[in-house]
Each structure stands twice: as structure tokens, then as C-alpha cells.
Specification:
The complex is a heterodimer of chains A (about 600) and B (about 290). Chain A has about 600 residues and is an alpha+beta fold. Chain A folds into 5 domains: about 1-75 and about 570-590, no CATH class; about 90-205, Rossmann fold (3-Layer(aba) Sandwich); about 210-295, Immunoglobulin-like (Sandwich), CATH 2.60.40; about 305-465, 3-Layer(aba) Sandwich (Rossmann fold); about 475-535, Immunoglobulin-like (Sandwich). Chain B has about 290 residues and is an alpha/beta fold. In chain B, helix 1 (about 10-20) crosses helix 5 (about 100-115), helix 5 runs antiparallel to helix 6 (about 140-150) and helix 8 packs parallel to helix 10. Classes of the chains: A alpha+beta (about 600), B alpha/beta (about 290).
């Protein structure tokens, strides 16, 4: 039990005041009687012939003292602490990577689940089960104890980074809807529960752990030079063997001495530059095994270069900015179109000499560009986007064009946009190069203002650059991988490190893939009508967040600390009812003079 | 006694009461008056008109000569019964009209005794002392009785046992103790002593209304009128109930004592009128008929 206003107990001084008043009130009226012979015998029997004994026998006094105590208790705002029985319990399980740390015979998460199971069994009412990995997630909200335990046992480690405090706002919201709920956080980190009715079941403590935090590579002399950073997170110097694998084959093993609480960077040579993936591993086992391996994809991430020849077109620049893996270069000088780019965008002008490689986008192309035949100019009109693999998601949309050039649809191209009978945009593959042309100046159209424009541009550029895979080479466990599908991709799936395959839904502008709880190499396969695009990305344990000793302030290792805060049911009403009954009893006693 | 209790109204009442009553205890005594032994008595007591059955040898012929009517001379020695009335003259008796009622009872009983041609002696008990009136006989002596009663003052305490034992009982008789019996001991001894002295014993227990049903409430400092002792009590219904139980036990103990010794007992309330006490309470208890 706790009290919201403990200062109210100062009013307990009313009790001695009541007693004093009773003593002062006892002014005895002298009465001469014939004899006290009988009274002496009566008083001898009752043993009530001293003032204190009279007080002890005075029922009214005790009732009034009890009333005073009850009133002071009501003022103090008592709350009875509930845990479990009869009250709704919110169970928050920390599933972040650090909870995989060894904890006795099991892991911290295993111990937490076991403890939570016991608490649920003891409880009544409703149970809300929340797993807190990268993001807090409500798993179940039910009064069925068995179902809650069943769901609890199915909680798996996420290896993700996250903080238990992320769940605080969710718990707070749940508690605001239900005054009778209380939360227990099963975690290895501290949290401030000042605004929450709950407690922490602590599963932290020091651990014996060495982690691999970082891996990168560079190509040198037709081979890969691989850098790996190792951190000793214990209080003693350790000896470790670090192995490097390329596509699953052992490349080298390094033996290192690493000081307590320090990091060391080691370099490996000799891995083939044709390798698709790299993996570094600590041979020795420790308390947290997940951070003993780290992965990297060698060819899974490639930056594209694009050159924009224009006198200024913010609409195109904005469209290019949709792609994080395209570096955009700009020029307004037609003679400056030199160098090798993956994509050329000619806006209203063309260079004197066409580049020999790379895809090209013509926007409002001038006559004599050598690729698109311009027949003249015409007044624009209502433009309609035609159905094509490149115009997916925006079919049947329309916009207005003020003026445009008339161009022939080349034999290698397909019309994308029509204005009456004229073609306003074409796309196709010519001499091994992908080419797209828009016969109007974007400034002379309301197309850039429409919602279809970014989709159209995204599709066109993806088509021209054969884009269509992950935007990042590696992520941490639990993070979402944004997959940008190619424009003509119809289906795709991802193969997890465990071998399990999972289909992904193709959507614009990117598909977010969240099942990244395993660390390892993930393989993305995108299927279009005529081809398959295969790419990979690495998912690593977030060691810089989760391998650290989160609670270094704790001195006891593997200790279980419960921290509770007062919460539960207000007791004012029951006390007031008791007070009412007492007052009635006092009235009866007063009237009947017991 | 500052108050005139034996006024003309009372004296008229007493005559009517006496006419209508007599004491059965005296029946045995009166039987003794037929014995020859008593006929030889020389101590004149009174005249009595001759009725058939009386000893004609005791006819006073001189009186016959003077009045032409047959009178018998009565002598004191003929009565084996002596009428002793003991009045508790302690201070406790001066509460709630107990003193007045006690004196009236004594007066009535004296009158009855005198009317039955018995000797009456009134004894006032105070402390361990006993103050006795003369042994009087004859209706004319009733005035002496009244005078004695009027001079009794109620003060201090009373040790009934000691007082009674201080009295000499030369012959058989009737002893009536009028008291509230608020004493820790001595009653049973007194009764036994009287029985040993061949006394028919009657206990007239006089309690005031306040003692029978105390009208007290709140915090009271009770001052004992006899001893001056003080007791502080907080009156509650529970306490009053216990007092009532204790009073009942107290009365029962005296009744039990009487039952064991063959004494008569009557409880009267100080507030009751004398007619009711004599004609109702005494008659119900069989003391008078």
C-alpha cells in the first residue's frame, strides 16, 4: 500500500487531542448517596475505577479514534498495490539483441519469458503481451491466461536494436485507457517508470562478450582487402581467433590479443574480388554469440551516375533525387558532355557528339539529334498515358500539354503518352541502349504537378538503368530493407540466411522488407517476363547498440532486481464506507449509552 | 427530627390501620396469658373487661364495686412476648424518605403491640451503640413511643450485629429490625443472636427509590454519606444493569438468611405511603394479618 498524500498523516495528532478532550470532559459531578456499599461491589466487578480503565472501556472514545484514523487515511489517499490477481497485467518483453546474452543455463530472454509465465499464472484479469524489439508490438490482448502463455512462449529473439523506453509510451497509452492495469518490463536495461504503473524485472548484469562491429572492403590488385573491427567488451584482456570467409570458403584466420574494453582493427588480404559475400567470425564462444559473426556483400551495391544537360529543370532534379543510389551531375554546356555515365538526360538540347554508351532520356529534343526524328511542332492538348510496362501504376492518367514537338514513333520504341494521334513520349531499346524521349518541355505542361509524374519518372529511370534491388548493401537486424523493384518486375522473393524463402509484394516506390531478424546474407530475386534480377544484402547484429554492457552501474552479475512503483486501486471509497458505518455505530452507542 | 411526622393526620391513620390489623406472631404469646403462672403476677399492667373464658379469679372486685362491671387485672408478667423494635439510625437511612418511613413503621408496629397489651421497646442503633426507650405497655404509653421516635437522629454508620448483641433479652419476644442493611457484615449474626435469645425476628428492609432504581448519568463522584468515601463512576447502561444485578443479589442474600433462620422479611420502598406498606407489603409477607 502506498499513499498519494502522506503529509496528511500529520492530522493523526487529532487522536491525542480526542483522548485529551475525553479526559478533560470527565468532570465528575459530586453526588451524596446513602451508601456506596453496592456501588463498590459493582465497580470492583467491572474494574473500571481508574480513569485509564474508564478510557479503555469507553466504546465511544475508541469509535471516535477509529473515525479519526479513517479520515486521516482517506486524506492520505491510500492505494493498494496489486500485482496480478484481479488486475490487468501488461507484460513487456524486451526482445532486442542484448536479450540473447547467456543468463545462467538459458538466455536473458528465456529467463524473462519464464519469469513472465509465472507472473501471468499468478495473475487474473486481462493480459496484454508486448514484445519490444526494434519497435514495440502488441502480441495479444486477452483474458485467456493459457493463450497469453502460449503466445509468450512463442516470442523469439529479434537480434534487433531498440530500447525498452520505446514501449513506455505504448504502455502509458494502454494504462490511460485502463486504470486497473499495471505493467512489468522484463528487460536488461533501465527505464524511467515515473509516469507508469509498473515495475522492472531486471535481467542484466555483466557478460563475457567479444563482438565484431564492422566490416568493409576495398579492391586492391584484383583482390579484396577486408577490414574487420573487433571489440573486447569484458574487463580482462582476451585472446581470439578471427576467421574470414568469402562465399563460405575460409580465406584467412588471424590470432589477436585484445585488451579489456578496447577495439582492434584487423585486415585480411587475399579474398577474390569476384566473391559475392564476405563473413568474419570469432572462433571462441562467449555469452552473446550473435555478434560473433559479421557479413558484407561485395557486389550488391553499385552507385549509378547520371548527367543532366539542361538550362535548369528542377522537376527532373527532384525526380532523380528519389534514387539514393544515383549520383546526379549537371551541365548546361553541350560541349561538356564527356566522361562515362550510366544515364544521360538531355533537356531541350543535345551534345554535338552523342555518347557511345549509357541510356539516354530526351526531353523536348531538338531536331537532328540523330536518334529521334522530329517532324515539327504542334499545339498541345490533353495527354493520356498509355499502358506499358514502364507506365505501370499510372495507366489512364492524363494531363495537359501547351505545346509539343511532333515525332515519329521509332520501330524500336513504344508510345507512352499520346496527345490525340500524336505521340508525346516513347521508350525502347536501340542498339543495346535504352532510350526514352518526351516531346514536350516539362515547363509547358502541368505533368510535373500531377501525382503521376514522380511515378512515371521513377519507372522511366529504373527502366533505363536496370535498377530494381535493394538500396543499401547492409542493414542491422530488425531494420527494414527498402527494395526498389525494377519497372518491369512482376514478382519477387527473398531468400533468408536460413534458406527460407519469402515472397515480397512489388509496390512503388519501394517495398519495405522487415523480416530481417536473422543475421546473414539475404538474396533478393526479382522476376520480370523475360529475366530475373538477383541481388544480395547483408544483415548484421547491431553490436554497437546491443553488445554493450547496458547496465554497468549494476554490481551484481546476473542478478534479478525488481523495482516497483506504487499503483493499484484507490482505497478512499471503501474507507469512506467503513467510516459511514462507524459513524452509525457511534450514533447507536451514543443513544443507547453502551 | 425537624419534620413533624407524627401529626394528627398520621395518628388518625394509625388508628384505622391498627383496628384492621393484628400480628399473628402475638397469637402464641396471647395463649400464654391463660397460664396460671401468669395469674399470680403482681405487676399491674392494665384492666381488661371480663369475657367468658377469662380466669375469673383475677376479677378486680373493687372495680366491680365501683363500676358494677367485671374487670380483670392484667399484669406484665403474664406476657411472654416483648416487642423490640430496632431502628437503624445511620446516616444512610436519612435518604429518600427511608427515615420517615422507618419511624412510621416503628410507630405503627408499636401501636399494634401496645394495642395487643404487649410491652414495646424501641431501640435506635447508631454506631455500635444502642439507645433504647423504656419498656412501655398500654395504649397510654404510645405517646412515649412517639416521643422517643421523634428524638431519633440519623447520623454516622451502624453496626447492626454489635448493636443487637448489646441488647439484653430477658424473655421471649418479637424483634423487628428496620434498616437498609447497607453493612458488610453482622446481619446474619444479629438474626442468629436474636433467634438464640428466643426472639421472633422480622427484618424490614427499607430502600429508597433512588437505591432501587438509581437515576444517575454521566460522570458521578459518589460520596458515601456514612463514611465520606468517594467513588468516581461513569454511568452507563451496562453499569446500571450490573448495579441492578448486584442489588438483586444483595436482597436475595438477606432473604436467604431469613429463610435459613426462620425470620420474616419484607422489602419496602422509602417513597411508599405507610398505608400501603402496612396493609399491602406487611400483609403480603404475612407479618400482619
Amino acid at each position: 500500500m502506498s499513499f498519494s498524500s502522506p503529509f496528511s498523516f500529520i492530522f493523526l495528532i487529532s487522536i491525542p487531542a480526542i483522548i485529551l478532550m475525553y479526559i478533560l470532559r470527565q468532570k465528575f459531578e459530586e453526588r451524596e448517596v446513602s451508601s456506596i456499599y453496592l456501588w463498590e461491589q459493582v465497580l470492583k466487578d467491572t474494574e473500571a475505577n481508574t480513569p485509564w480503565q474508564k478510557l479503555k472501556k469507553n466504546l465511544l472514545l475508541f469509535l471516535q479514534i477509529l473515525c479519526a484514523v479513517l479520515i486521516v487515511l482517506c486524506l492520505a489517499g491510500p492505494r493498494i498495490f496489486y500485482r496480478g490477481s484481479g488486475k490487468n497485467l501488461i507484460v513487456v518483453i524486451d526482445t532486442t539483441g542484448s536479450m540473447d546474452t547467456k543468463y545462467g543455463e538459458t538466455t536473458r530472454l528465456g529467463a524473462a519469458i519464464k519469469k513472465a509465465e509465472g507472473d501471468i499464472k499468478k495473475g487474473g484479469g486481462k493480459f496484454t503481451l508486448i514484445s519490444c524489439g526494434a519497435n514495440p508490438e502488441i502480441i495479444i490482448n486477452s483474458a485467456d491466461k493459457n493463450e497469453a502463455i502460449s503466445k509468450l512462449k512463442k516470442i523469439k529473439p529479434t537480434n534487433s536494436r531498440g530500447e525498452i523506453k520505446d514501449a513506455l509510451s505504448l504502455v502509458k497509452a494502454l494504462e490511460s485507457r485502463d486504470n486497473e492495469s499495471s505493467a512489468i518490463f522484463y528487460t536488461d536495461e533501465e527505464a524511467d517508470l515515473s509516469d507508469i504503473n509498473g515495475e522492472i524485472s531486471y535481467f542484466g548484469g555483466e557478460s563475457n562478450n567479444v563482438s565484431l562491429d564492422y566490416i568493409s572492403f576495398s579492391i586492391q590488385d584484383n583482390s579484396l582487402k577486408v577490414m574487420v573491427r573487433v571489440t573486447n567488451r569484458t574487463r580482462e584482456d582476451l585472446h581470439r581467433d578471427i576467421s574470414l570467409y568469402a562465399d563460405g570458403r575460409l580465406v584467412d584466420v588471424r590470432e589477436i590479443e585484445i585488451s579489456a574494453n578496447s577495439s582492434k582493427t584487423i585486415y585480411f588480404d587475399g579474398a577474390s574480388k569476384d566473391a559475392l559475400s564476405l563473413m568474419a567470425e570469432i572462433t571462441e564462444k562467449d555469452d552473446l554469440m550473435e555478434d560473433n559473426t559479421i557479413y558484407e556483400v561485395v557486389n550488391g551495391y553499385e552507385k549509378k551516375k547520371a548527367l543532366l544537360l539542361t538550362n535548369g529543370n528542377i522537376f527532373i532534379e527532384k525526380a532523380i533525387s528519389l534514387f539514393s543510389n544515383i549520383d546526379l551531375y549537371k551541365t548546361s554546356d553541350e560541349d561538356d558532355v564527356t566522361g562515362k555515365y550510366d544515364l544521360y538526360i538531355f533537356d531541350g538540347a543535345v551534345p554535338k557528339e552523342m555518347p557511345k554508351e549509357g541510356s539516354i532520356v530526351f526531353i523536348n529534343p531538338p531536331d537532328g539529334n540523330g536518334i529521334i526524328n522530329i517532324k515539327g511542332s504542334s499545339k498541345g492538348g490533353r495527354a493520356y498515358i498509355e499502358k506499358n510496362v514502364v507506365t505501370r501504376y499510372i495507366e489512364d492518367a492524363s494531363f495537359n500539354i501547351l505545346s509539343m514537338k511532333l515525332m515519329d514513333v521509332p520501330y524500336w520504341g513504344n508510345s507512352l503518352i499520346k496527345v490525340d494521334d500524336s505521340t508525346a513520349a516513347v521508350a525502347g531499346e536501340y542498339k543495346g541502349r535504352k532510350i526514352c524521349a518526351l516531346s514536350f518541355d516539362l515547363h509547358n505542361s502541368d505533368f510535373p504537378l500531377s501525382t503521376e509524374y514522380p511515378i512515371f519518372m521513377y519507372n522511366i529511370i529504373s527502366y533505363l538503368l536496370d535498377l530494381g534491388h535493394n538500396s543499401q548493401p547492409s542493414i542491422f537486424c530488425g531494420d527494414n530493407m527498402d527494395i526498389s523493384p525494377a519497372a518491369d518486375v512482376e514478382a519477387g522473393n527473398i531468400k533468408l540466411p536460413s534458406g527460407k524463402e519469402e515472397n515480397i509484394i512489388i509496390s512503388f516506390p519501394a517495398t519495405s522488407f522487415g523480416n530481417t531478424y536473422e543475421n546473414g546474407i539475404y538474396t533478393l530475386l526479382q522476376k520480370s517476363r523475360d529475366k530475373e534480377i538477383k541481388s544480395s544484402f547483408a544483415v548484421n547484429f547491431p553490436s554497437e547498440y546491443e553488445s554493450v554492457q547496458k547496465n554497468t552501474a549494476k554490481t551484481s552479475e546476473n542478478s534479478l532486481i525488481s523495482r516497483s512503483k506504487s499503483y493499484g486501486e484507490d482505497m478512499e471509497l471503501p474507507l469512506l464506507i467503513m467510516l459511514l458505518f462507524l459513524l452509525c455505530a457511534e450514533w447507536v452507542v451514543y443513544v443507547h449509552g453502551y | 427530627m425537624t419534620e413533624k411526622i407524627f401529626d394528627s393526620v398520621f395518628l388518625k391513620k394509625i388508628q384505622s390501620i391498627v383496628i384492621n390489623t393484628r400480628m399473628p406472631l402475638l397469637e402464641g404469646g396471647s395463649g400464654n396469658r391463660k397460664s396460671k403462672a401468669k395469674g399470680n403476677s403482681v405487676e399491674f399492667s392494665d384492666f381488661k373487661e371480663y369475657t367468658p373464658g377469662d380466669d375469673f379469679r383475677r376479677i378486680d372486685w373493687n372495680a366491680y364495686g365501683r363500676s358494677d362491671r367485671l374487670y380483670i387485672r392484667l399484669s406484665m408478667e403474664e406476657r411472654e412476648a416483648m416487642f423490640n423494635i430496632f431502628i437503624d439510625a445511620s446516616k444512610s437511612m436519612a435518604f429518600g424518605g427511608k427515615d420517615i418511613l422507618s419511624l412510621k413503621i416503628a410507630a405503627v408496629l408499636s401501636c399494634i403491640g401496645l394495642n395487643s397489651l404487649d410491652r414495646v421497646c424501641i431501640n435506635a442503633m447508631n454506631g455500635k451503640e444502642i439507645y433504647s426507650s423504656q419498656n412501655v405497655a398500654g395504649n397510654a404509653a404510645f405517646g412515649k413511643c412517639i416521643n422517643f421516635l421523634e428524638n431519633i437522629s440519623f447520623s454516622g454508620g451502624t453496626d447492626i450485629g454489635s448493636c443487637v448483641k448489646g441488647k439484653d433479652f430477658p424473655r421471649k419476644g418479637i424483634s423487628i429490625i428496620i434498616s437498609d442493611f447497607f453493612t458488610s457484615a453482622g446481619i446474619q449474626d444479629a438474626v442468629k443472636y436474636l433467634m438464640y435469645k428466643r426472639q421472633e425476628v422480622m427484618l424490614v428492609h427499607v430502600l429508597s427509590d433512588e437505591e432501587l432504581t438509581p437515576n444517575l448519568e454521566g460522570c458521578i463522584k459518589l460520596l458515601d454519606s456514612e463514611t465520606g468515601c468517594v467513588k468516581e463512576v461513569i454511568i452507563s447502561s451496562l453499569l446500571l444493569k450490573k448495579y441492578s444485578e448486584k442489588l438483586k443479589n444483595f436482597i436475595n442474600e438477606i432473604k436467604e438468611c431469613c429463610a435459613k433462620t426462620g425470620a420474616s422479611y419484607v422489602l419496602v420502598s422509602g417513597g411508599e405511603p405507610i398505608e400501603k406498606v402496612i396493609l399491602h407489603d406487611f400483609k403480603n409477607s404475612g407479618i400482619i394479618i
